[in-house]
Every structure is written in structure tokens, then in C-alpha cells.
Amino acid sequence: MINLKSDVRRHDDSRTSARRYESQRYEARRYDDYRPASRRTTANRSAARRPEPRRPEPRRYDNNRPTARKYNDNRTYAGRSKSRDFDEFDIRPGKRRKNKLFGSFFLLIFELLALAGLLFIIVKNLPISGGLDTSDITETSQSSDKKNTNGKEDIDVPSWVKVDLIDSVDQGNPSRTLLPLDGVEDIVIHYTANPGTSAAQNRSYFNDPSSDSCSHFIVGIEGEAILCVPLNERSAATNHRNNDTISIEVCHQDETGQFTDASYDTVIKLTKWLMDKYNLNTDHVIRHYDVTGKECPRYFVQHPDAWEQLKEDLKK
Hints:
Layout: H1 4-32, H2 93-125, H3 134-142, E1 161-163, E2 186-191, H4 199-206, E3 217-219, E4 225-227, E5 245-250, H5 261-278, E6 285-287, H6 289-292, H7 298-302, H8 304-314
Parallel strand pairs: 1-4, 2-5, 2-6, 3-5
Antiparallel strand pairs: 3-4
């Protein structure tokens, strides 16, 4: 007789045993995950053959210093990453050196520009005349020991000539160099090129430290005459002929440069006195134009006949 109830119980017991066995294996595998590979169960021993996950070493450079990379959370244990974004502080040593070199270079350029600007300001403020002829500058540097420093200034002029000397280079005025004349070969006539100005105003201009020119005499519109530079010193009016000429600047009323009657008469009288003093004839009375080609004095350059008449008047 078949005992169905006993068979069912036996079948249930086998199923329960199978479930219990599978549950035990599952628990063993879970437990083995936290045990060293050498102590794992035989059923889970295959897991010991899997390589340990390891993080790749950071890259190294010539200076043997590792980079300071900081990866995001997407990086895997196999050394691969879905996103290789670096944080804002991730700067490689080579890049740091390059940035440092660039910074030093720009700092050097800035310092050089600042130094150049400082030198420009210093040179600009030096009392150096920019209008002197190159030969005059050379002579000044080579003949500094020949300056008229003995105090003997030739100011022996007629009583109708006002003596009002301008400051010298030692007093801050570079146009009066104190260099002695090598002699007097010619008398040069100029015009001021400042219409309507007086002799005193032009004398003040010559005395300005920023001026690069001066003349021995200035003749005003009303016929007044002023001695600005001693007759034994060089003026700065006739370029390379400053070393052997006496210069006379003449004021005028308008752009034509024509002299007034009063200024014309004074020019004739003053020039004749200089011709007698230095034993010169009319051939040694010249225009600034005859030395450099400059349109000075303008009226007598544009009207050569008027210049010839002036030289005739000097013979009277």
C-alpha cells in the first residue's frame, strides 16, 4: 500500500534540502567576498584567479615629479574614464615653467619700457640745444677748455647800443656757448621771422633755456639796438659759420620781412661801425641765405636789387 502522505513529505524534504543547499552556497559566496583569496571556499575559488583591480600610476616627466591629476567620479578601477575632466588646479610642471618664463619675459619688457621712458624724460629736461649745428656741438665738446671764462667780455660798442647780455650755458642757457670766435671774416644780416615783435622781446627769446639760437645784435622796429652776446664769443645764428661771423638780427612789421626806415638806418650805421672795427669791406657783408640757402632775410632774398642797394649804402 502506497503511503502518499509519506511520499509527499519526502518530496517536500528534498526540495527543502535543495533550497537550503543553494542558500548555503549563496551565503558562502557572499562571505568569501570579504575573505582573502587563499581562504575562500572551493565553490568560490575561481574568483581568486581574477586580477586585483589596480589604479594606474600617475604619469611622470623629466623631473620625475608626478602630475597632480584629480579625476571625477566616473573613473573606473581599470584605469579608464568616461570623462577625463581635470579640476581647475590641474597644471602640469612643464606648463608651470612655461607660464613662469612668459611672466618673466613680460616683466622684463615692462621694466625696459619704464627705463626708456625715464631716460627720455631725463634727456628731454637736460639743457641741450636741439637747434645747434652738428659742427657746433662737436666744437663744444672738443673745445670746452677754450671757453671764455676769464671774464673779459668784448662789449666795447657805441653808446647808442644797449648792452643786455643773455645768460650763458653755465647759467642754464645753451644757446650762448662761451666759445671764442676764431676771428671775424663776415658780418651776417638776418631777420627775426617774428612779425611785429620788438628787440627786447627777441632778446628774451634768446635768453630762454629752451631756445637754440642767439645773435650778437638785435635791431628793433624803432631803430633800437641791443648787444646780446659779447663780440669775442660765438653766436648761434649762422650754422657752421658761427665761429667766424658777427650776426645781426633785424625786427620787421609784417610777413614780407621788409625793414622799417628806422631799423634800416640802424643796420647801416651798426654794420659800418663793425666794418671799421674789423677792417672789412662790403664783400664781407652777407645774408644768412648766402651761407645756408635759407630765405633769410626774406625781403632781401626775394628782392636782390634791394640787397645791392643796401651794400651801396654801406659805401657812403
